Amino acid sequence: MKPIISASDTASRVVRIFFTIALLLVGGSAFAAPKVHQKPSDFIKSSLGAIPTTRAITLTSAQQRQVRAILGKNYKTKAIRYWTRNGKTAFILEETGKTEDITTGLVVKNGKIETVKVLVYRESHGWEVARTAFTNQFKGTSLKSNGQISKSPRNIAGATLSVRALTKLARLALFLDSRK
Amino acid sequence: MTQHSPKRRRHVARKWHRWLGLVAAVPILWVAISGIMLNHAERLGLNERMVTNGWILKHYNQLPEGEPQALVVGDRLITGWGNELFLDEEAIPLQGELVGAVAYKGQLLIATPDKIGVFDGADELLLELDDLSLPGTPVQALGVMDEKLHLKVADQIFVLSEDFFSAEKVAAQLDVIEPRKLLAEERDSLTKAIRTRRGMPLWRVITDAHSGRLFGWPGWVVTDLSAVSLIVLTLLGLRLFPKRKS
Question: Looking at residue B26, what is its pLDDT?
C-alpha cells in the first residue's frame, strides 16, 4: 500500500511545526517595569487634604527589636517619617516583596487602618495586591496584643510574598502609630 | 500530491536528521553537560564557588556603568557610579546621581536630585528626605555655612531646620563643591571591592547558561530551538529506526 503522505511532506510539516513553536517562544517574552500607581506626595495630599509638616519617629533599640519582629529585619531607616492631620496619620513605607521594594501609603485613624494603597509596584509578579479589592481588606484592622493584625487578608495565589509584605506594612504602620 | 518511494523517504529523513543534528549538536551538548553539573551542584561545590569575572558581573547588573564621580567629606570618599552610591567602598541604600555631600552635626548627608540620605556615625541610614519633606526637588547642591545646612533647589537657597523638616528661603550664595572624577587608583580599589562583595555563585551562572538566559534573548531562543530540535531529531530517528528492506 502506498503512503498517503510522502516523507518529504512529513519532514516539511515537522520543520513547519519547529519554526511555529520557535516563533511562539520568541514572542512570549515579557518585561516588567516599575508601576507608579500614585506619587507619595499625591497620596498624602489626597488622604489628609494637604501635606502637613513632616514628623519622624526615631526608633529606640527596643522599638527596633519590635520592628524586627514584625518585618523579620530592620527597617531601611532608623527614623520613620509620618504626617498627621485631622486625627489621621499617614505613613509611606517600603517592604520587599520577592526582590523589589513595594512602596505603600497607609493611613491610620484611632488605632485602625483607614487606607492602604500600593503607590509603586516594582515586582514582575503579584501586582494583584495593588487592586483596591485586596487593599480594602485592611480597612478597620487594628493591632492585637500579640502584634498581629485583627483580620488577615486572603492570600492571592502567585502573589504570596507581596501579600505578606503588605500585611507586614499594615502591622508596622499600626505599631508606629501607637508609638508616635 | 507527489509520492516518493520508501528509499526516497528514508533519504529525506536521514538528510534532515544529519543536518539538524549537526546544527543543534553544540547547544544540545551544553544543555546536557550543564544539566549534569547542576544535578551534582553540591558535590561539585558550585554553590560555594563565586564568579567575579567583569563580564558576568556586568551581565547581572552588579557592576555600575559610566564615569564614577566623587566627593570627599573629611576623610570619607563618597562615589556616585551609574545610579549607585558608595561610601568609601560600601554601597549605600540610596540611589541616583551624586549632587552633594556634607558633614553636619555628626551626621553625613548625601544628596541626589530626588533625595537626601542622612547617615549617622555608624554609616546607617537614619532618614531619607524627598519632596514630601524638602522645599522642592531636584536638589541642585548641599552645603554648610555658619553651621547651618543650606540647600539649593530651583536656583534658590534654603536653610533647613535641625530636624530637616522645615526650610526657610534665604538670600545667600552657596559655595558648591562639584563632584570630581574618581582617580584611577580609587576606581581600581572600588571595582575590586565591588567584585569581591558581589561575586555570583557559580551554580547561578551555570543555571542561567543552561537555560540560555545568561546570553539574553538570543541565548534562550537558541536553548528553546535546541530543545525543539531534540524533539524533531527523536521523531526523525524513530522514523529511521525500522530496518531497511533489502
Answer: 93
